[in-house]
Design brief:
InterPro entries: DUF6009 (IPR046051). It holds the Pfam family DUF6009. This is Transcription factor. The chain has 133 residues and is mainly beta. It has one domain. It has a 5-stranded antiparallel β-sheet with strand order 1-3-4-2-5, with no helix packed on it. The longest helix has 6 residues. It is globular.
Length: 133
């Protein structure tokens, strides 16, 4: 499940990846207020931006600020791609999804791969499964 819903993505027309997502188990996503509909946004978090959404011409800026809500995809310095044995060797951050499940206007979701492996014994006991990818 994603923290971002489809209604907030209706104006997306493309996702631009800055890295090969086939090498990433998960990406973090956030809905940022940005000054433009298109183009690579400025990045002000720890870690690195790995992609961003592009909005179509029908997207309207906020009345008060003129900014646009756009998705930004990123990884923190302590994420699994950089520290495979670290905090997220299994499991994944709340705001993360498998990048292979993302598309314009689609929030994406977690998969077995993004969570770091096979289901936990608790999930198995409850009969819960995640998609493979």
């Amino acid at each position: 499940m994603s923290l971002i819903n489809e209604a907030s993505l209706i104006h997306e027309i493309d996702i631009v990846w800055l890295e090969d997502i086939d090498k990433l188990d998960y990406v973090r996503q956030s809905l940022d207020r940005l000054p433009t509909r298109r183009g690579k946004p400025a990045y002000h978090r720890d870690g690195r931006m790995v992609g961003y959404a592009v909005l179509g011409p029908s997207a309207k800026g906020a009345a008060a600020s003129g900014t646009f809500h756009r998705r930004v995809f990123w990884l923190a310095p302590h994420d699994r791609d950089t520290l495979p044995g670290g905090e997220y060797s299994t499991g994944a951050p709340l705001e993360s999804v498998d990048p292979r499940t993302l598309a314009p206007r689609q929030p994406g979701h977690k998969t077995e791969r993004s969570e770091g492996g096979p289901p936990s014994p608790a999930m198995v006991a409850l009969g819960l499964t995640l998609p493979k990818a």
